[in-house]
Each structure stands twice: as structure tokens, then as C-alpha cells.
Amino acid sequence: MKLSHLIAALVFVLATTAIAFSVHAAPSVFKLYAGANGAWLQGPDTSFPTDFEGGGAASASLSPHISAVGQVFYGFSHSYIRYAGGVRVTTTDVNNPNFNTFLGVRYVGGSTAAFRPSEWAPDAGFGWRPSPEHWPQVTVTGDAGYGVTSARALFTIGLRYEIPLQ
Amino acid sequence: MKIWDLLVKLTGSGITDLKKILQSVADQGGDLAAPAAALLQLLDSAPSAQALAEVGASIPGELLNVVQGKIESRDHAGDGA
Hints:
The structure holds 2 protein chains of 2 kinds.
Chain A: H1 2-20, E1 30-42, E2 50-61, E3 66-75, E4 80-90, E5 99-110, E6 119-128, E7 138-146, E8 153-163
Antiparallel strand pairs in A: 1-2, 1-8, 2-3, 3-4, 4-5, 5-6, 6-7, 7-8
Chain B: H1 3-11, H2 13-28, H3 33-43, H4 49-58, H5 61-70
Helix pairs in contact in B: 1-2, 2-3, 2-5, 3-4
């Protein structure tokens, strides 16, 4: 519980300060995104198999390999809010800004039984900028996480738009 | 194992560096010393939601400029996933 508070504190502070002081923050450390997902949830007590989500995410690159991340998304078909915050490690070339895969762990939860209890969820995913020259702020993303308490798996495929901070 | 040690073990040197940066700012004194110390204390504790909100809202942009100038960051396409 205390560890979750600590990591949540870090993510919260980084995300909050990125928003509150976006005028001062360099995008190389803090980033904000708006995005949409297709979401697939599988496992015990899941009330829906798929949904379409809209929401936002924030990240802070703490070192070449390590980032703190947080996100909140709303499911339009089933009217839920889900959130996640955690850390991830880039597992591909950190000097390639246009594609990377990652491994991470997140603390996840949400407003409906399908996303409860709040729990830790190891996850893996990727990000890809399909046209870095013409659309450098657009990223295709994919992520798969597994809740260690609920034994539910959440898969998402999405699009992100990086909101300019300066 | 202390909570902080476990977190550092999970996240590698990045958060260790962040804490060192904040400590150096706090040690230097001046206007940024107090907010840097407050953030350090926050990271070392298990704060309440109210404490998170209060500290998060009171961090000056200048402190972020100092921190971001020292963090060796990268642009990861997958950070928004």
C-alpha cells in the first residue's frame, strides 16, 4: 500500500506539475497527450468485451530508459472511467524517438466493477510515429496489461496526439 | 527493505537522480529550497490525497526548470500508450 502511494505520488506530482506549469516545462521531459483507444477486456467478471475510449495521458522521461506515466480514459459504450499510473522501461533503442517497445508496471483502477479492485498490473506495449516528418505529434500505440489481483487482461490499440507545451 | 529502496530497485537510477537533484536544490538554499524539500519529503512518505494536491499545486515552475535541465531524458514514442 505504501509503495503504491509512493509511486502514485511521483506520477501525480509529475503529471500535475506538467499541466500546471506547462509554459515553463520543456517537452523533452514532460509530455501531455490526448487520445482514443479501442479497448478489449478479458477475464473474470468482465461486463463487456470491447469499448471505445477517449481521454488523456501524461509522461515524464526520468532517464534515457525510464519514464513515469499516467492516464485517464472514458469508455463511451459502457460509461466508465479508468485510470492508471506507473513506470515503464524502454526495451528498444532509446535514441529512436519514432518507435519503441516497453515493459512496465501500473497501478490501475476505474469506476465500474470491471476495473475493480484497484490493483497492480504489469504491462507491455509499443509506440510508433507513422509519419514523423509530417505528423510528428501523432503516435500509434498498443498496450497489454494483466491485473495481478483480478486476473483480467486489458488490451488497447490507440492514437495519441501530443499536446504542445510551449 | 525500505519502501524507497524498493522503488529505486524497480525504477533504476532515474528516480535516484531525481531525488539527488532535488536534494542539491534544497541544499543550495534560496527561493527554491523550500519547495524542493517539500517534494523530497513527499517522495519519502506515504502522503494523503490532500497532501499530494497541496504540494503538487505549490511547486514553482523555476524548480521544474532546474530539474528538467539536469534530467537526461529521451523522446519515447510509447510513453503515451
